[in-house]
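The protein record quoted in full:
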Amino acid sequence: MARDYYDVLGVGRNAGPEEIQAAYRRQARANHPDVNRDPAAEDRFKEVNEAYHVLSDPQTRRRYDRFGDDFRRVPEDWEDRVSRSGVRGGDPGFREGGFSDFRDAGYTDFRGSPTGGGTEVDIEDLLGGLFGRGRGGAPVGGADQEAELPLTVEEAYRGGRREVQLSGTSGPRTYTVTIPPGVVDGQRIRLGGEGGRGLGGGPAGDLYLVVRILPHERYRLVGRDVVVQLPVSPWEAALGATVPVTTPGGEVKVTVPPGSSTGRRLRLRGEGMPNRRGARGDLIAEVAVLVPPRLTPRERELFSELANVSTFDPRRELPRSGSDSPRGRKAATS
């Protein structure tokens, strides 16, 4: 039996969406194979992603809370089907009106623990009674399922074939997935017929892998644009320069115009994420002027000479508040 998803994320059953998301980010970061070298970290990382996928979606979470490990076998629209057709069968509690009537017969816990004196619910009998087995009903197609597919920015950029292992009620399943180059966060990859099993000879549902781009220490994605910081020296910023910058697709050259300050954004069109159905994204390099932490005697001499001859005042245009008389205070170094 799979671990309880609430225990996997370390949250209570009444946890709200923000608490669940915060727990997921904390656990995913701690167990990502690129960060945690523990051999068991990869399995924990997959387990955390699966738990978050289930608990972050209100409808899926509701099915999980009601049916436990069997929730994947219950169609997403089971409540609508029950309300449309009514529920009749030989077991006590299967009465017209849907699942609300189960509580009157003691069926208030669908995780395998009978409550209120009722008998334990058998998921096969439950699904058969709901969706046609033994009543001459039409075959019922299996439920579509979703699972998260975490990718680094580089993996999303390159695409390619990858093995994905997902846990299920019958044990782990492994799929070979073709990832298109340039997938973005939230994009779904469909695996036909790999979802929930059908009933009464109905077809299986589909499995959708939802791409989740992992946080990266260097790159930030905005749609298909890749944003990267571009460190430059004071003289490169002042005089202009052509400098290298590393992108998910390799190294490119960026021309820094003379007089560039920190925060200036330089756009290289077509150097962002690939797009099979349209224009590629852009690379956006954000200039960050860095000063040498320690100056050589010659550097100090040159900077002092520049300070004496330059008329540039970066604070000239800043508005002053209060008194026009500046007060001298030494700033603390953090």
User: Anything to note?
Assistant: The longest helix spans residues 41-56. The radius of gyration is 29 Å. The CA atoms of residues 59 and 243 lie 50 Å apart.
